[in-house]
Write a structure and sequence with these properties.
The chain is an alpha/beta fold. The chain has four domains: 1-194, Glutamine Phosphoribosylpyrophosphate, subunit 1, domain 1; 207-344 and 460-529, HUPs (Rossmann fold); 347-457, no CATH class; 539-602, no CATH class. The strands form four sheets. A six-stranded antiparallel β-sheet has the order 3-4-5-6-10-11.
């Protein structure tokens, strides 16, 4: 199990056994590289911990614990955990400021404590049967154990074909669950006790825009400064967008040496943003590194990346994220990123659609149903040209703006396929699974948001669902496959809670996105970056399916499918995509990843 995760920690490894309990750890050395090997114990060896991540307030905690008489043998943040547990028991997790997943064994009380950070930056999965329990940072590690995974969870696969990923707590296997963000699990002879020790506190505020911008800036600057803690070289991802530019600009103000920045571009102009990254790099005088990807580069990396997945995960941006992480790791061990700001400050197109949809719904229903929608949906939509893109966006808008409940509209904004494509999925119901997941999340959000406008509620739900289970999963996979640690300042809990508390018109107006964020950092943003439209960190899979990936896709579709997909219907969608009548790229990629995963699982003997 430990060897299976050597990419997460190539610098060192350690194993601890105590009767029926075994702990194993792979180390990526960031703090106290020479002396911080794990597992780490307390003074008498009765408390043992293995830990993934960083505790940013460990200095203050260590000082307090030392004053209380605890003896430290390393300079690591990890050692704080065993001593803080001695002082406060399982409740000590509430005091941790950082990104983490850990397991702590108390041999005297014979109990095991598992916990994951409040935003879900670091992963943790747990397998349970009647007489055994196993956990790991990644699913493939569990494949190397002797625990029964319980076979395929078809409800989870229904959610996969709804969203392109499987939301927590489900995984692709019935006996395995994801530990949720902010969850603490205590395991003893009394059983398994799971509870949420932290939920973001969202108290609606209504400061004027300048006051909000000033306070936000101080919070983000503090968050960046905390994340510069390291005994190794660090750098930053730089896409040329608002978010990464703010992180790089803040780092440049805090560091004496030029920031090492890293970006990836495409050899297709429509997807390439490297020019913007170069402008930012010049503006902040960074030590800039740039790589360019072709379709063949991605093709060559796809098997390597997908072969590492323990369950299907179909965010296409995983591939360029993997490439930029690989290039970054050749230079540094730690990188800061701008992830999370789109969810907090309404940067995605889906938020603009939700904001504008009320105006579309103001049109008479008969005009929408019998005039606008048939006319727009009849147009050919094939991404790759200005006209095709416009048609695609028009169809995307009108098909997600109808008279439905907020959770149902939210699902339409997140789903990877239209009703036509979803009909090719058999024996499971992605629409029902997706809508149920969204209804559950909307029902559980903070009561203070119940009366807020729909966009505020959707953003709050996204921080609990798509942010940890899609965005942060992608970041962790892409980086840790390359033994790179990524830190995300925008997901500091103070920043998250303040951002979600602000009125939506501080974030999104008819003409502007991320309004308060840009106001807060206007001096670190070049004018060209302030004025440019948002671009996603995407790859041109729609075009690649028509050319470089065409034969491979057809071959893969005809491979095993576990009785989930209608092969003939999938091939009809593929032909329609090739003809340029509709853009099915997101769904086709979801199918391709699923097929690749299913074949791989059968080859490894994980699935019969």
């Amino acid at each position: 199990m430990n060897d299976c995760q050597c990419h997460r920690g190539p610098d060192d490894d350690g194993v601890f056994r105590d009767g029926s309990v075994g702990l194993a750890h792979r180390r990526l050395s960031i703090i106290d590289p020479e002396n911080g090997g794990q597992p780490i114990h307390n003074e008498d060896g009765t408390v043992t911990v293995i830990f993934n991540g960083e505790i940013y307030n460990y200095g203050a905690l260590k000082e307090r614990l030392t004053s209380a008489g605890h003896r430290f043998t390393t300079q690591t943040d990890t050692e704080v955990l065993v001593h803080l547990y001695e002082e406060e028991g399982p409740s000590f997790v509430d005091e941790l400021d950082g990104m983490f997943a850990f397991a702590l064994w108390d041999s005297e009380r014979e109990r095991l404590l598992l916990a994951r950070d409040p935003m879900g930056i670091k992963p943790l999965v747990l397998a349970e049967t009647d007489d055994k329990l196993a956990f790991a940072s990644e699913l493939p590690s569990l494949f190397e154990s002797d625990i029964d995974l319980g076979g395929i969870d078809r409800d989870a696969l229904a959610q996969y074909f709804a969203f392109g990923y499987i939301p927590a707590p489900k995984t692709a296997f019935r006996n395995v669950s994801k530990v949720r963000p902010g969850e603490r699990i205590l395991i003893s002879d009394d059983g398994i006790d799971r509870d949420k020790y932290h939920e973001p506190s969202i108290t609606p505020r209504d400061p004027d825009i300048d006051t909000a911008a000033s306070h936000l800036r101080s919070l983000v600057e503090s968050a960046v400064e905390k994340r510069l803690m390291a005994d190794v070289d660090l750098g930053a991802f730089l896409s040329g967008g608002i978010d990464s530019t703010i992180i790089v600009g803040t780092m440049a103000q805090l560091l004496d040496d030029p920031v090492k920045t890293f970006t990836v571009g495409f050899n297709q102009d429509r997807f390439d943003e490297s020019w913007a990254a170069r402008e930012v790099a010049s503006f902040h005088n960074t030590d800039h590194h740039e790589i360019t990807l072709t379709a063949n580069d991605v093709r060559e990396s796809v098997p390597d990346v997908l072969n590492k997945l323990g369950e299907p995960f179909a965010d296409p941006a995983l591939m360029p994220s993997y490439a930029v992480s690989r290039a970054t790791r050749n230079n540094v061990k730690v990188a800061l990123s701008g992830d999370g700001a789109d969810e907090l400050f309404a940067g995605y197109d889906k938020y603009r659609v939700e904001s504008l949809s009320k105006y579309y719904r103001a049109l008479p229903a008969q005009i929408r149903k019998y005039a606008v929608e048939p006319a727009v949906n009849a147009l050919p939509a094939s991404r790759g040209t200005a006209v095709g893109d416009a048609v695609y966006k028009g169809q995307w808008f009108i098909n997600r703006s109808g008279e439905r409940s907020v959770p149902e509209r939210h699902f339409d904004l997140m789903r990877v396929s239209d009703d036509q494509a979803i009909q090719s999925v058999t024996n499971v119901d992605p629409i029902e699974a997706g809508q149920t997941a969204l209804r559950t999340q909307h029902a559980a959000i903070s009561p203070e948001l119940a009366d807020r406008e729909s966009l505020a509620r959707i953003q709050a739900v996204d921080t609990r669902l798509s942010l940890p289970d899609q965005m942060l999963t992608k970041v962790d996979q892409a980086s840790m496959y390359n033994s790179l640690e990524v830190r995300v300042p925008f997901l500091d809990t103070d920043v998250v809670e303040y951002a979600l508390s602000l009125p939506t018109d501080h974030k999104l107006t008819g003409r502007d996105r991320k309004r308060v964020l840009k106001r807060a950092f206007d001096d670190v943003l070049p004018e060209s970056i302030l004025q440019r439209n948002k671009h996603g960190f995407d790859m041109p899979i729609g075009e690649w399916f028509k050319h470089e990936f065409a034969d491979e896709f057809v071959s893969m579709v005809r491979a095993t499918d576990l009785g989930i997909l209608d092969t003939a219907a999938i091939l009809e969608l593929f032909d329609e995509h090739l003809d340029g009548n509709h853009d099915h790229s997101r769904f086709l990629w979801t199918v391709y990843v699923f097929k690749h995963w299913a074949v791989r699982m059968q080859e490894q003997g994980v699935l019969e």
